[in-house]
């Protein structure tokens, strides 16, 4: 329903009946004038559908990975950027814009560097003997700071009239450059990553009682922990590669899901995916219709995320204490 509502919004207004008429005509069940069919196909399929799909995928990925990271690290203030993936992906995208301009190589470099940042954080954590959750967080912070500093170097060396505005705009997040092949290519890995995290929900519930208790129940604690981190990192990197930097979704949406359904991860993770997709689709609607020019999606999520987080902070704190 949210996706259908988003398809009707835009400079060319549509009604739900237009969507239904186009759907029946596309299936060959009813006839439609060729000129009107081409117009609706262009507006619905080529312009609005890719960004609605991408918004739903990115929202589900960020919210699910945020809920998974909060469960693994047992910290309600953890977000998908805790292990440095956002800093690495930002550096990769800026490097791609500097070397190749906008295009698929920017998304590929963002994805690769996001994974590289997490890998660097894990290596730093292992340098001190054992990769505990505390050392992983510290390693991620160091790695994130390293890639953020390299991002600053790239921005300093970029052309201030062309490349630097492109880098800054990309870092604020947008679905305007997403097309249907890009969304379809990212859909498979993101949905598989979300499904893996949802399936690990019961194991995370057992681990919430403590590692020893989880082992006594037959849960392979280390395997589950690294599996969750790998899946959450993968879908976080893909979301950044698809739409740029979008903050707050992975932090606040799990709190709303937790307030509605409680702390059990077996229910929290699928609920976070659903709420994250809805939140991002609605945020994208606001980004593209509230002003004459499109507002970066990262700005919209920050404007709504900060007061929303303040509103749920009291209740969320009570749940976690």
From TrEMBL:
Biological processes, Gene Ontology terms: siderophore-iron import into cell
Entry keyword Metal-binding: no
Pfam families according to UniProt: FecCD (PF01032)
Its membrane topology: Multi-pass membrane protein
A single cellular component GO annotation: plasma membrane
UniProt entry keywords in alphabetical sequence: Cell membrane, Membrane, Transmembrane, Transmembrane helix, Transport
GO MF annotation, one: transmembrane transporter activity
Compartments where found: Cell membrane
Positions of transmembrane segments: 52-73, 79-101, 108-128, 134-154, 183-204, 224-256, 268-289
First-listed, main subcellular location of the protein, grouped into a coarse class: membrane
Family: Belongs to the binding-protein-dependent transport system permease family. FecCD subfamily.
Record-given protein name: Iron chelate uptake ABC transporter family permease subunit
Species whose genome carries this gene: Methylocystis heyeri
